[in-house]
Here is the input.
Amino acid sequence: MLDVLAHRVYRHLFLAQVIALVGTGLTTVALALLAHDLAAGQAGVVLGTALAIKMVAYVGIAPLVGAYAARLPRRWLLVGLDLLRAAVVCALPFVTEVWQVYVLIFLLNAGSAGFTPVFQATIPDILEDEGQYTRALSLSRLAYDLENLLSPLTAAALLVVMGFDVLFLLNALAFLLSAALVVSVTLPSPRPVADAPGVWRRVSHGMRIYLETPRLRGLLALNLAVAASGAMQIVNTVVVVRSALGLGEREVALAFAAAGGGSMLVALLLPRVLERVRERPLMLLGGLLMTLSLFLGVLGPGFAGLLGLWWLLGAGASLVMTPTGRLLKRSCQPEDRPALFAAQFSLSHGCWLAAYPLAGWMGMHLGLAGTFALLGTTALAATGLAALVWRPPDPMVLEHEHAPMTHAHLHYHDEHHQHAHEGWEGPEPHSHPHHHPGGRHRHVFVIDGHHARWPS
Here is the structure.
């Protein structure tokens, strides 16, 4: 797996991702403790609301950035967003009111909503080989797991010698190091895209590809299962450990780390498994493991049992999330990747937007057992829906009918553009009126300007 790090540009981007995520993991722990200090017994409600605001930023900002990412210089966009996040995190230690937390969380995650989909869409342009890209996805998943595993462990050690507010400043330093690593490499330019007729079309383009593709509709349902289980773990860990079990801050960090441990193990094993097994059965298995973890939580386990449940939950989430990039890459043209990755980012976090406040408010009104049962039922229903809408065998090559059409857009002379020229059209990619005759044929099928609907 580590041979992909021989690629210098990817290595620098991967290190930037790791450093930023480790810092973000420190903030996750510190934010839970800050909520406990500001709101005491209502920490779950405050944290759930803060994380819901985070999702509002993700859902609203990501499609806008995805719409224009192909028109902006990637390196300076990523660096600017890292600097914005560093500035906001530096302000968190100084908050004294709950509403201030909410404002800063929105600004922080508006920056992340721009950074993450652009970063994700850049990787397949750097690593065009499918095997290398699969290994990169697993490494990327490991980087996210560092937020859940190494960051809480680091936080537990640091909390022995310093207050949790210092963790915010360490996160700011991590963002600055991430920006420096991005500056150190040259990123590939986005592929030229046709000018869309309006802002709404640019914003909605990735959404239309996503929602017209059956495998991605199944992915969206599995995103809901991930959100239901993840929200229970993130929002209510501090409630279970501090209030129900009467334990301390370090046990909160260890409980966060348990989910990361399960996720990391799966991410390490998946590249070899994916050489022999398709994504669909593995991702559905992940949904079932998360469901099982939530239903077992109804039994009210002790601290050791909670660590086991969170480990199982993390393993299930990794089974779903690690192959996601492969599905997205397979489901669009290269020039549509920023828009499609932004759509995944926005739609998946829309699921978290519903799940976070549900986990917080239901934890207060239904109790922990009732909340485990409710979110477990949600995860089970979402996994079942995914199995229904994403049917096997899901081939790449499909036979389909083309209606005759005449239009103009930027294009290369690929299999859909074999036509004569008059000499004024200019070098490729170029735009001019051209005609597509109707007919029926077979090729690798994705939703794009020539294929608006999935074949029945």
Remarks:
- The mean pLDDT is 82.
- Residues 8-39 form the longest helix (32 residues).
